[in-house]
Amino acid sequence: MRHGRPALSVAHTRCLIVGPSWVGDMIMAQSLFMALRERNPGLEIDVLAPAWTAPLLARMPEVHAALDLPIGHGELDLKARRRIARELRAHHYAQAIVLPNSLKSALIPWFARIPRRTGFRGEQRYGLLNDLRRLDKARLPRTVQRFVALAMPKNHLPALEDCPRPQLRTDPQAGRVARARLGLEDPRPALGLCPGAEFGPAKRWPSAHYAAVARYYRSRGWQIWVFGSQNDFEVAEAVCRDAGPDCTNLAGRTTLGEAIDLMAQTAAVVSNDSGLMHVAAALDRPLVAVYGSSDPGFTPPLSPTARIERLGLACSPCFQRECPLKHLDCLHGLHPDRIVRALDSLLDATA
Ligand code: SF4
Asked: What residues does ligand 1 touch, defined as CB less than 6 Å away?
């Protein structure tokens, strides 16, 4: 246990976390799990979240069990929530911490009669939560601080440096198996590119810019691995087409677990502000993170080997999924040379 920190507000052995449904947010939630376990080493943390998050949770040693929440994003499905809550009663959780701010996300802990139910006020959750916190956005500007604050007594608002940094555990053998399956046994250093962003096009640096970065590192003898989900296949394909040989499109061809184990074997990563950016940060990869419509002050990559690149236009951050001005200058104007310079200097510094 570290000294000089307030005692944890949890003084029992089993805790249920209602987890977020975004990759990046789930990685930042690991800081909460670490903060809880740092202060209560015997605490068992179970995380209730959609099944696709299981490979992420399996790589977080602080998590005791990943519990499937088989309810679609935005669905209420009271019957399913009551059934899950009945099953959870047998676990005798002493506390639930609810990370999403919706009213429905607080229902299962309430139906499950978990005695202490912690979360931010969100959508009128009085009664459903009985350890309600007021969100002070000025003193808790970052998502990770907000999550970690829920492990603390009410009046303690953690600074960024009080938040443990997410660190995903990886499986090198599984990474080797994935490389063999995908024909990636070439031993040359690999640059990982993540040109997708589930949120929308206003977070996506142009594929032509990614391809220019790929050509530069290819000319230095590297190979290129382009990561993403099935939804990112087209943009990843455009990068590979434009970049030339030695560029492999992995979008939609890996499980999330394989993507993590493969990314752990890259020499460096360039990514949009996306879930995979947080994966790269939690793997301590040398990382250049490209920001457009979003704000790095809110969800920065939590890694000392990450650099943020953005133009900081007057209109930025607008937090929009698509550019309301129709030009996307915040990303089109961010020249690939600038990203290469940032990554080269990072590689020099971390060599
Ligand atoms: S309004 Fe500005 S910050 Fe927002 S997407 Fe367009 S160029 Fe980017």
From this structure: 202, 292-293, 313, 315-316, 318, 320, 323-325, 328-330
